[in-house]
Amino acid sequence: MIHVCYSFLADTAKMSDSEDRQEIRDIRRSLELIQQTLSERSPAAPPQSTSGLPATPQQEMLRSFPGLYRGRGRGRGRGWSRGGQGKGQVPGFQSASTAEMEVQFFLMESNRDKTPQLAAEAAYVAAGLGPKTVTISTSMDHKQVELRLIQAYPKLRQLPGGWLLKKVYQGGSGSRPLIFAPAGQDGYPGKWFQKASKTTKFYVAPMQFDLPLEPLPDTAEEFLDTPKTECKSCSKKVPIPLLVDHLARCETV
After folding, report:
1. 59-78 residue pLDDT tens
2. pLDDT digit string, tens, across residues 196-232
3. How far lies 246's CA from each of 74, 163, 220, 224, 251, in Å?
4. Where are the beta strands (DSSP E) in 74-224?
5. For 155, what's the count of Cα atoms within 13 Å in the CB-facing half-sphere?
6. What is the pLDDT of residue 167?
7. Between 125 and 172, where is the model more confident?
8. Nearest to 236 by CA among 225, 247, 226
9. Does residue 150 contact residue 107 with C-beta atoms inside 8 Å?
10. Residue 154: CB partners within 8 Å, gap ≥ 6?
11. Distance linking the first and last C-alpha atoms of the chain
């Protein structure tokens, strides 16, 4: 019907009478109002995301309540957040991303009952053992955690008999007593480390076979990612933790 009316307007547009022209303008405005009314009465399409997929609950909440969920950087609780804290989520919606932790480890040469003396730490480092910080994700299972430890301590790759974790029983200084940190039915997955304090250091204890404490060469796999410095006597690139020992035995000194 609308198209017929527009055709009528085209045919009558040539009329020169001013009154007829005014009537045509009135009819045109009426048709525009009819079109607007019809478009408003047509059913609305479901909200879509920018990717063309149906809107997620978070996007629908943002569309419906932009003032509440679109923060301006002031005040706590602005923006989407996990459980109402921080940014990136509607309150109540849990994030699908996983958390990562920096966990402190110390690989020992045997199943010791006490921590090694601090003065002996350099010898452990030279042997590819000792303290290291490893990044662990809460989504990892025991095997994935073990692979991360093997990356940090290549000697674990060939260790038969398995290993367990220990931790300090009491605070203090010097050599302190160690107790086992019991593993769950699924071993030591990433979530297991969430329960520990951020300052807890876990001592990796070989259970059935000891690891050698002899110093490794400067080019060993254990030191590939270790920062190095040049020895001014022999011009070799020496891993920084081994520099003191290297200078003591450098043949050209």
Report:
1. 665 665 555 445 444 444 43
2. 878 899 999 999 999 999 988 878 888 888 888 888 8
3. 55, 31, 14, 17, 9
4. 100-107, 130-137, 163-168, 178-180, 201-206
5. 27
6. 95
7. 125
8. 247
9. no
10. 128, 221, 222
11. 102
